[in-house]
TrEMBL record:
It comes from Phytophthora kernoviae 00238/432. One of its GO terms (biological process) is monocarboxylic acid metabolic process. This is 3-oxoacyl-[acyl-carrier-protein] reductase. InterPro entries: DUF3243 (IPR021637), NAD(P)-bd_dom_sf (IPR036291), Sc_DH/Rdtase_CS (IPR020904), SDR (IPR050259), SDR_fam (IPR002347), YmfJ/YflH_sf (IPR038292). Belongs to the short-chain dehydrogenases/reductases (SDR) family.
Length: 348
């Protein structure tokens, strides 16, 4: 059988729709396609100014058409209106990048049904609705590329991000199943599952935490958005047509390490009320002595005793911290101690 079944357009005549493209990875993906002259549709939900700025950068770098469209991905009606607008402008996508998504930090015991429904609706239902609305055009021309932006947490899971991990795991399963369904029609469906990327999603980490995170990643650094966008672009090319149903994770080798720093910080934060008074006085004493390796080691020893003797295991957030401490090696316990010290100092 010959490779591909549809009539291929020149790259410069193709159109890509990128959801959640007003900033971060989504904007980088839009710019990557614009550079080769493709028509680019930038979807956004609320960030009108940011979407316009992303569109301006795309127009500066490419010769194709650039359009911004707003739609609430939780609403089939709004996605239908978005499709109708694209049809009226002759910009139905040959390539769909489902990038839009939101995250939620917190223990599962604290997740309300409303929060669960919102994250599920945007991350998973939105991907389903956009795909369902856009794929008939691709099927009719017997050519198309659907690329879903997942996450490393969809592969490994993350403590304090059970909900987010669940949605990304769902996207991975959606990708694999839909690839089988659409392959006979000349379409491919793949997912990109990035590790830690230098975007605003990491703004809550200070320089010390970023350094610890980089040290945890075997590559020794964070990914840049353009490294993710380059992979997405390759998966959209005709030359990638035999790659189908795959979850590709550009993570610098981080998957093998488990994402200890980021999941630890969340666990420490959620249990703050339990240990803030205990550690507050000790941090003040340690600072008088000089916050060095010796004092951190001493604090780590005292934290271990405190968790053994004082923590109520019936409290989910306390239990999570205690279990994290018990399974950690010496270096990981020092990391936990450093994160606890930082938080205690911030709230002194």
């Amino acid at each position: 059988m010959e490779r591909g079944t549809g009539q291929l357009k020149p790259i410069g005549e193709m159109t890509v729709l990128v959801t959640g493209a007003s900033g971060g990875i989504g904007a980088a993906i839009a710019e990557r396609f614009a550079k080769v002259g493709m028509n680019v549709v930038i979807h956004y939900m609320k960030s009108h100014e940011a979407a316009n700025e992303a569109a301006r950068r795309c127009m500066e770098q490419g010769s194709g058409k650039v359009m911004t469209v707003s739609a609430d991905l939780r609403s089939r009606e709004q996605i239908e209106r978005m499709r109708e607008k694209l049809e009226s402008h002759g910009l139905m996508p040959d390539i769909l990048v489902n990038n839009a998504g939101i995250s939620h930090y917190g223990l599962l015991s604290d997740v309300t049904e409303e929060i669960w429904d919102e994250v599920m609706a945007i991350n998973l239902k939105g991907t389903f609705l956009c795909t369902q609305e856009m794929m008939p055009h691709m099927i009719s021309q017997r050519y198309g590329r659907i690329i879903n932006v997942s996450s490393i947490w969809g592969l490994s899971g993350a403590s304090c991000e059970v909900l987010y991990s669940t949605t990304k795991g769902g996207i991975n399963a959606f990708t694999k199943a839909l690839a089988k369904e659409l392959a006979p029609s000349g379409l491919t469906v793949n997912a990109v599952a990035p590790g830690a990327v230098q975007t605003s999603m990491l703004n809550h980490l200070d320089q010390d935490e970023l350094k610890m995170l980089e040290e945890e990643i075997p590559a020794g650094r964070l990914a840049q958005p353009d490294e993710i966008s380059s992979l997405v672009y390759f998966l959209a090319l005709p030359e990638s047509g035999y790659i189908n149903g795959q979850i590709i994770s550009p993570n610098g080798g981080w998957l093998t390490k488990g994402g200890f720093i980021m999941s630890t910080e969340k666990t420490v934060l959620t249990s703050f009320d339990t240990w803030k008074k205990f550690l507050g006085d000790r941090v003040q004493q340690a600072e008088k002595m000089g916050m060095n390796e010796e004092t951190i080691n001493k604090l780590a020893y005292e934290i271990g005793d405190f968790l053994d003797e004082k923590v109520d295991p019936a409290n989910p957030s306390n239990r999570a911290l205690k279990e994290l401490w018990e399974v950690g090696d010496e270096n990981e316990r020092r990391t936990i101690a450093c994160l606890m010290v930082k938080l205690a100092k911030q709230n002194a």
